[in-house]
Amino acid sequence: MFEKYPFGNTETRILSECCLLSGSARHPNDEDLAKVETFARVMYQHLKDQ
Questions:
Q1: What are the residues whose beta carbons fall under 8 Å from the beta carbon of 15, sequence distance 6 or more?
Q2: 1-50 pLDDT, tens per residue?
Q3: CA of residue 12 relative to chain centroid, distance
Q4: Are 27 and 20 contacting, i.e. CB atoms less than 8 angstroms apart?
Q5: Pick from 23, 25, 26, 19: which is nearest to 1 by CA?
Q6: CB 15 within 8 A of CB 1
Q7: In this structure, are residues 2 and 12 in contact, taking their beta carbons and an 8 Å threshold?
Q8: Chain CA centroid to CA 41, Å
C-alpha cells in the first residue's frame, strides 16, 4: 500500500496513522491489564519495603 504513496506525502501520513489507530482499538486487553496489575503490585511492594 505504501509503494503507491511516497514518504512525506499526506496520503502516506494518513494511511500510517489509520494503521496505528486500528491496532490500538484492540488495547488495552486482558493481557495488558494483567501486566499493569503485576507492575503495580511489584512497585507497591518495592516502595513499601524502603
A1: 1, 2, 5
A2: 445 555 666 666 777 777 777 766 777 889 999 999 999 999 999 999 98
A3: 20
A4: no
A5: 19
A6: yes
A7: yes
A8: 21
Lookup result for grid cell 496513522? 17
Q: Is the pTM of this model over 0.70?
A: no
Q: Please name the amino acid found at residue 44.
A: Y
- Number of Cβ within a 10 Å radius of residue 17: 10
16: cell is 500510517
In the chain, the amino acid numbered 2 is F
Burial class (CB in 10 A: 0-12, 13-18, 19+), 50: exposed
Are the C-beta atoms of 12 and 6 separated by less than 8 Å? Answer: yes
